[in-house]
Amino acid sequence: MDKKLIALVTGATGGLGSAMCQRLQKDGYHVIAHYRNQEKADQWAVEMKEQGFVFDMAKADVSNFEETAAMMKDIETRFGNVDVLVNNAGITRDRPFHKMTFQEWDEVLHANLYSVFNCTRNVIDGMRERSFGRIINISSVNGQRGQFGQANYSAAKAGMHGFTKTLAMEVASKGITVNTISPGYIGTDMVMAVREDVRNAIVAQIPVGRLGGTEEIAHLVSFLASKEASFITGANYAINGGQHVY
Ligand code: CAA
């Protein structure tokens, strides 16, 4: 029997990450769930088990290059090379720009964009050697169109797709695809943390008339990870209920 492909999902304990882990495991991947916060991860593992899922897990602050490199080495030793990398970890520190602190800017750029370099740089050599890989970067509608209060987040998320486009060109001949997914507003804790009146005004602008489901994003991840998607690279998939069309 063929060895299972290894899929690493960063930020696995969040709403989108959880759905992606579950979907990829159902698809037959050996899923490694990345986390940063031990307490949250322990609780998450219990919840997953209650839902019938058990995942191997790996810890790191992916905004830190050395910590990320050490985690990737550990994954390689324990399980093998990563074949599918989903750069999903991310945070928000929303604030109108004239009030934004350097720390709020810096934390978001590190967690959302530097993390993409840190994770990808530490798996790309192995993917090139094996002539196969899938890199899926989870960006945002707000990287495509901007959003009041998100200068830091929009900059990081737009930067992700610039990275996708260049890396896609560089590794296309090596059997590696690199794509961006730009979700709109999905029913996650991150979105539910937006003030209710602001959130309601945003939902009112979504033509489909509702927040997206986490499993809808996971479905697209599953598709882009598949062997059949080998001609799709450097693309940016909008999945936002029609909120932003262009
Ligand atoms: N558009 C235009 N003006 C706005 C505005 C908006 N969206 N939001 C606030 N303002 C105005 C206020 O009315 C106020 O005007 P006045 O000074 O004339 O009264 C002015 O801007 C300043 O308001 P405040 O400084 O008091 O800002 P606030 O505290 O009311 O709101 C904020 C700031 C918390 C950042 C708020 O704008 C907000 O929550 N924005 C939404 C952020 C958002 O969508 N985050 C998404 C998180 S989920 C995610 O990121 C996932 C994903 O990828 C989609």
Description:
By secondary structure, this protein is α/β, with parallel strands linked by helices. It has a single domain, classed as Rossmann fold. It contains 10 helices and 7 strands. The protein has helices at 15-26, 38-50, 65-78, 102-121, 124-130, 141-145, 151-171, 189-192, 196-203, 214-225, and strands at 6-9, 30-35, 56-59, 84-87, 133-138, 176-183, 236-239. Strand 2 (30-35), helix 2 and strand 3 (56-59) form a beta-alpha-beta unit. Helix 3 runs parallel beside helix 4. The longest helix is centred in the middle third of the chain and has 21 residues, at 151-171. The mean pLDDT is 97. Bound molecules: acetoacetyl-coenzyme A. Acetoacetyl-coenzyme A binds at residues 92, 94-96, 140-142, 147-150, 153, 185, 190-191, 194-195, 198.
Outline of this structure?
The protein is α/β, with parallel strands linked by helices.
In terms of DSSP E residues, the strand content is 5-15%
Number of self-contained structural domains: 1
Overall shape: it is globular
Task: Note the total helix count.
Answer: 10
Give average pLDDT, whole number: 97
What is the C-alpha radius of gyration, as a whole number of Å? 17 Å
**CATH architecture identity:** 3-Layer(aba) Sandwich
CATH homologous superfamily title: NAD(P)-binding Rossmann-like Domain
Reported for the largest beta sheet, the result is: 7 strands, parallel
- What percent of the residues sit in helical stretches (DSSP H or I)? 40-55%
The strands making up the biggest β-sheet line up spatially as 3-2-1-4-5-6-7
